[in-house]
Amino acid sequence: MSNRRRGQRRGSTLIEFTLVGIPMIFVLISTFEMARGMWIYHTLAYAVKEATRYATVHGVSCTTSPNSCGVTIGDIATVLKRSGPALIPNQLTVTFKPSAGSSTTGTLATLMTSTTAWPPASPAGTNAIGQPLTISAVYPFRSAIAMFWPGTKAQGGPGLVYFPASSTDRIQF
Q1: Is residue 46 exposed (0-12), middle (13-18) or buried (19+ Cβ within 10 Å)?
Q2: Average of pLDDT values for 135-160?
């Protein structure tokens, strides 16, 4: 091969890498970020479901003497934290909503210290068997590539998406 032909091919490797390599790196990083987002979302959904399940088996029968298995918002928040170890408690906003009365909302970190009985006995019958309970949560997920995901909007800054999760069940015991 002559020097002249070799000189004409110089730089083709750089152009090929630019055309193929850089998009492939973006696809690889995007795959990892999507997997991380799905892991966080499923962890959040599982933790909220477990906390709701725990609350539904501690209704009116647990607060009636001689039973002493009644729980507080702090107990349920601890179950949520244990079920979702990857979730940062200061960033997770949780809402406890009984069938009647007012909801309780706060970060998981602050709710873990709450000594308020839940489900509440007031208004009358709120903690009765068959009454629905809802626990919902919102968790921020930050990713540098989230701004490129289809269907996402800037919700709190570039690359920030809020993952919601909610679970409703009826008091069993």
Answers
A1: middle
A2: 77
